[in-house]
UniProtKB/TrEMBL annotation:
The lineage of its organism: Bacteria, Pseudomonadati, Pseudomonadota, Betaproteobacteria, Burkholderiales. The keyword Ribonucleoprotein does not apply. Residues 85-193, 218-332 form the Plastocyanin-like domain. Keywords: Copper, Metal-binding, Oxidoreductase. Residues 29-48 are annotated as: Disordered. The keyword Manganese does not apply. This is Copper oxidase. One of its GO terms (molecular function) is copper ion binding. It comes from the Bacteria. It is found in: Periplasm. SUPFAM superfamilies: Cupredoxins (SSF49503).
Amino acid sequence: MTSRRTFLGGAGVALVGAAAVKRSAAASLPEAPTQGSPNTMAPLAPPNGRPYNPVVTLNGWTLPWRMNNGVKEFHLVAEPVVREIAPGMKANMWGYNGQSPGPTIEVVEGDRVRIFVTNKLPEHTSIHWHGQILPCGMDGVTGLTQPGIDPGKTFMYEFVARHAGTFMYHPHADEMVQMAMGMMGFWVTHPKNPAQHAVDRDFVFLLNAYDIEPGSYTPKVNTMLDFNLWTFNSRVFPGIDPMVVRLGDRVRIRAGNLSMTNHPLHVHGHRFEVTGTDGGSIPPSARWPEVTTDLGVGQMRAIEFVADNPGDWAFHCHKSHHTMNAMGHSVPTMIGVDQRGVAQKINSLVPDYMVMGDKGGSMGGMQMPLPENTLPMMSGEGPFGPIDMGGMFTTLKVRAGLARNDYTDPGWYKHPKGSVAVEWSGDMPAAAAAPGKAPATVPGETIMNVKKGGAHHGH
Ligand SMILES: [Cu+2]
């Protein structure tokens, strides 16, 4: 909560920062609260300014502001942080105000916003306000619209949040390094009229990816595509909190993609509509039902649905390797190979060896010894056993009888009697034969149609 806020470095740092601020109308820099806890913080009800319905940042928080003569003033501090990726693993990252991603910024359409950005990184940075329609010189592109913010300096951005919508912020300076290190944050501009696009629960998070070698703590910043940790707000399952909603609630989930590949986000048990992009709200006549929506690189989507189906529903990226944590790829496929006996022989030479694929066992149930500061590939214990998931996976917990502002994890869903898939213990029915004549086969023999002739020209 914001009660955990601390003053960064105290008044001394504020004075040094203020000296570097040239055009500030303020006598001093606004407070720069920091957040150390990776827990999902309760929505921040606006203490002043125009009213709005606040969002919930998954495993994150919203940045408080100072109102100064009608201008909302925020203070972001770009700095090295330690982020818990999930219990059992921490990473040395770069972020804002104590965390990666940085805090969510929430403002209202028409608000004049002033953002102070202090750089405590070892290299220059800048912030681009992705999706905002603003004066060119406030766009945050180092070299193009401003000089970089050197280490120890504070810059001031000021603009009017002209359009309601879902946005994000990230550096436009040494981008590959700074984004690989976790520098990004969410931005929501609420509509002037709180009744417009109103929902009961509004969740936000960013999609990001890291390459952290098992046993190490710092992301590899030269990785271009082959990342090994696929995260929601720099967290992996089971470190991602469930999205808890009340039965019958209208729910909005907003996500932005600052990783280097696309992510098809899939919801179980519900149909949704994409109601917004980083370009704004989509008119109702242009929406269509979906259960999966693909988020391209640099895109944002807002989806909405009524949570009318109680249960614990999976919510995840549909790329199966994105619901896994760091893994080795140089393993041959052993599906169909009977490995019984092999493990014992290898175990006499390599004590920790285990087989996968056939007669080996699923990865979720494996208890492999891991290097320090590394998560299992897939984990998470459910009410029926291992969930076999990691990475971009969490649950949507739909429950009757929750209080309006209650986001507490209600535990596992209690299924009505007779509504859970069970093992069949009766007689097996006779298999129905397909119409037509089956080809004659000899047991154990495989029929192959081989196309003869012609050279192989490669791929
Ligand atoms: Cu994905």
